Amino acid sequence: MGKKTKSLGWGVRKEGRTLWTRNAVKGSSVGSERRKREGRIEWRRWDHTRSKVAAALVKTNSDPSLLLPEKSSTCLYLGASSGSTVSHIHDIVCGSQNHHNGQVVAVEISPRMVRDLVSLSEVRRGLVPVLGDARIPMQVSPFIRDKADWIHQDLSIADQALTFVRMTTSFLKHGGIALLSLKAASERSADGDDQSRFDKAEGILLDSNLDLLERIDISGLEEQHVVFRCTLN
Ligand SMILES: C[S@@+](CC[C@H](N)C(=O)[O-])C[C@H]1O[C@@H](n2cnc3c(N)ncnc32)[C@H](O)[C@@H]1O
Q1: What integer is the mean pLDDT of 143-157?
Q2: Helix crossing, 111-123 with 84-93: angle to 10°?
Q3: 160 inside domain
């Protein structure tokens, strides 16, 4: 690794602006991401132009490790798609053969995407794919072992902030980390331009029982997106 390598916690590194996670399944990529060896360890590139969590890690004004779960955590991922970001979270919290005893519950409404998640879960112990509606706590609760230390919501639907408040109220541990990736274009057009949609969502978070810690503008990497970082005290 080069000189400017910084550890962001177990199994995740930042090298300049490039992020890497420690591959839990050595010798295989999830998409077409690069891998590199360093002794017995294999690192997998986490592309910040294709993952909102990674984009937020690059753009945050705070310590990026504040956005990430620790190894062995219980994590809830709402809007998992085919699992590309989920796989990096799994690298961090579970590791090879889930020797950290973490859990990553990945909820997705599209059966086609869930098929990919199921294939991933066959080689990534601790990853739990759930075919369901991420707006409905009862569709998630049978699968999660405990309250979550870390939640990320990335749903391309309207009313993203209201859903986030409902789901974090049901599942987030006190002191846990909750990230909302908000896409302006998914909100209702009656809510005005992008900025007013972000402001409206921010107002909903400020009125909720969550503490809003940071609003991270990831435009330039993901257009029309901000990531809100919250916790529950
Ligand atoms: C922007 S993509 C997520 C990308 C993913 N987070 C990543 O970084 O790889 C949004 C996903 O949310 C899913 N989705 C939309 N509405 C949903 C719902 N109500 N419940 C669960 N998943 C939903 C979509 O099918 C889509 O796969």
Answers
A1: 97
A2: 30
A3: yes
Do residues 229 and 167 touch, judged by C-beta distance below 8 A?
no
The reported pTM is 0.97
The three-state (H, E, C) secondary structure of 32-48, written as one string: CCCEEEECCEEEEEECC
Mean pLDDT within 53-74: 97
CATH number at residue 114: 3.40.50.150
**How many angstroms does the Cα of residue 213 sit away from the middle of ligand 1?**
24
- pLDDT band at 2; cut points 50, 70, 90: low
Each residue's pLDDT tens digit, 76-122: 999 999 999 999 999 999 999 999 999 999 999 999 999 999 999 99
Count how many domains the chain has: 1
Give me the domain span that covers residue 58: 48-231
| Residue 54 reports pLDDT greater than 60 | yes
Mutate to test the pocket of ligand 1, among 47, 77, 84, 109 (most ligand atoms within 8 A of CB): 109
- What's the 3-state SS for 155-201? CCCCCHHHHHHHHHHHHEEEEEEEEEEEEHHHCCHHHCCHHHHHHHH
Q: Which ligand 1 atom is the nearest neighbour of the CA of 50?
A: 8
Cα(2) to centroid of ligand 1, in Å?
Answer: 35
Q: Which residue has the tokens 């794919």?
A: 129
Cα angle, residue 191 at apex, residues 188 and 197 outer, rounded to 5°: 95
Contact yes or no for 102/197 (Cβ under 8 A): no
